[in-house]
Amino acid sequence: MTDAPLLEAEGLVMRFGGVTAVAGVDFSLGEGELHCLVGPNGAGKSTFFKMLCGQLKPTAGDVRLRGRSIAGLPASRIARLGVGVKTQVPSLFDGLTAMASVRVATDAVLPPTLSKRRAEEALERMGVSRLAGHVVGRLAHGQRQLVELAMVIAQKPDLILLDEPAAGMTGAEVDRLGDLIVELARSSSVIVVEHDMAFIRRIARTVTVFNQGRVLAQGPAAEVLADSRVRDVYLGKDAA
């Protein structure tokens, strides 16, 4: 990691009419950092995530990528700055094969020969090379998640944002995904929004807990997840 943060949010606010979903959040992500955002439903973490990647324009505050303000920029422009995003619901072209889907991403940035090679590498890295010729609309949910993740990493982004990547996956698929995310964090910075606390415990190095639009706790995963305030608000009385 370098000393300078890759991504910073300062005083970030998001209001929907009279409702404040995010209330003045500060956040910093270092180069090569794997950071998980957690919190109960309605805590503001997904809204915060959407402001980072351009899906929502902040009401107030700023988001900076390597010192450059990106708050309010279109999602497509933020993506071109080296930010890869996977949303909670797979966003795929159901009529295309897995290979053709990933080629949509790689063709946008590479000449044809290199594009094909990069797409093959991405599918292999996600462990779904065998599905290259399969139409994605016929794939199981977990397989679709991995194909979409291959689309994200194929462009080799500096920052990867993942919203509920383990949702709807089988136990074996979640285990595999956890290994993949840890491996991805060796070459990219990664932010994960996730509800599955067993999954968070497995992959997280640093955790930010949201509650009522604010940061309740932030720091090393073991310390934060052991915080009594976090257990009371999010994990429940039976959490270890």
List the defining traits of the structure above:
alpha/beta; 9 helices; six-stranded mixed beta sheet; 240 residues; four-stranded antiparallel beta sheet
Task: Describe what you observe in this structure.
By secondary structure, the chain is α/β, with parallel strands linked by helices. It is built from nine helices and ten strands. Helices cover 35% and strands 25% of the residues. Keywords: ATP-binding, Nucleotide-binding, Transport.
Give a brief description.
The chain is an alpha/beta fold and 240 residues long.
Task: Identify the strand order in the major beta sheet.
Answer: 6-7-8-3-9-10
- Spans of 5+ residues with little confidence (pLDDT < 50)? none
**What's the rounded overall pLDDT mean?**
90
Order of helices and strands: EEEHEEHEHHHEHEHEEHH
Question: Mind sketching the topology for me?
Answer:
Elements lengths: L6 E10 L2 E11 L4 E5 L6 H8 L7 E6 L2 E2 L5 H6 L2 E4 L11 H10 L4 H14 L15 H13 L5 E5 L7 H14 L4 E5 L3 H7 L2 E6 L2 E7 H5 L2 H8 L5
Parallel strand pairs: 3-8, 3-9, 6-7, 7-8
Antiparallel strand pairs: 1-2, 1-4, 4-5, 9-10
Helix pairs in contact: 3-4, 3-5, 4-5
